[in-house]
Amino acid sequence: MKAHLIALFIIGLFLLGGCVEFPEDTSTTIDTKANTQNEVNTQTNQKTNEVQQTEQKTAIEGSSRTNPASADKTVTTKFEHGWSDSAEAQIKITSLIRGTSAWSMIKEANMFNDEPAEGKEYILAKVYFKLIKNSNGESYSIPSYKFDAVSSSGKVYESASVVEPEPELSTELYPGADHEGWIAFEVDKSDKEPLMVFNRGSEGEVWIQLYGLQSATSTTTNPKDETEETTNVEEVTKLYSMNEEIEVDYLTYEITKAETFIEMGTSMFNKETSGKFIKVYLDITNNAKETKQIFTPRFKIEDNQDRKYDRLSDDMMYIADYLEFGKQLQPGLTTSGAIVFELPKDSLDLNLIISGDWLSVKEVKIKLSSIKNIGKDTTQQDEQDEMWDEAMEESEQQMEELMNKCNSPFKCSSSCPEYMDVGQKDCSSGQLCCMQ
To answer: With the C-alpha atoms ordered 121, 127, 133, 136, is the resulting torsion angle positive or negative?
Structure first.
């Protein structure tokens, strides 16, 4: 009986335990929810800060493609370079040259530079770069490949594979030093508002307009009518005349005469054309304070069909009075010479175009009037004939002297060994000219 009571008591305890509910420990759940909410708030704040920082950065002029700096504005930037170094620099554009003027400078810089591709033209930007700080304290080399041109529509242009005029932008600077140099870009003629970008796609990129520089010189080509427009360039409004003194930078030119012919050179070495040669005579005076040199291309001829012709590169082989390539001009002195062009027969209303050196964009036009047709230029033949005549005259004089004067190895004597006299010649009376 007692055993039954104990069994019933144990069963009752089990039944009572199954009905009792113990309170849950909610502290862990509450803490987890709170931490999750804090993380969400932190991430939201971080994203908000990042957006605000991006918006602030974008709002800084020159920091983005949508907000480029004007060409004359100095932009300060901080950027990374190398593996872990950083630097701070100032960048701005001080001069812009575009179109034919830029190509003239690039062509002058290196004779192997190529013309711009069809539908494109060059832009030369003179960039000022000051290195303010460098984290490693060492020098920093300005890499030209870090500078790109981007079109107004967002297309990245290919790098211009040319040798830039001196001074080039690429150089090495220590902190505190600055440099100014040229960099070339090849852009579409129709692109009126291209941009230059430094360190594109990386921290501290700088965007600057490649247009609108008020103090710069720019020549562009309008693709609609293929006529040249110039901005802040001395426009050619006057057509000069021959025999008029014309100043182009530090030189004064005067065109004294013009001739046309179809053949030049000598009977042994000559050159002919199916068109016509135009020969221009000119005087050049150096007005500078130092010696200057004359290099091509400074001269072109333009005809009534807007075609332009360079001076013949080999004219000095066929004319005697050519203007020497690289001719030195001393201050205050004048040199004279002639240059030859080869044109088709239908070229009319010819103007000579004279430009300054590669740093200049000045250009003047002179009307070539009263061009005399001489059929053949014989200046080299005449020079050769004159030299031949002088040589013949000198030879005749020597022969006459040999025949009429008793000069060494002969000597005047009262008597000569047998067969050794050659007559009296200029010996005194009673003497003979004898072989010694």
So the answer is: positive
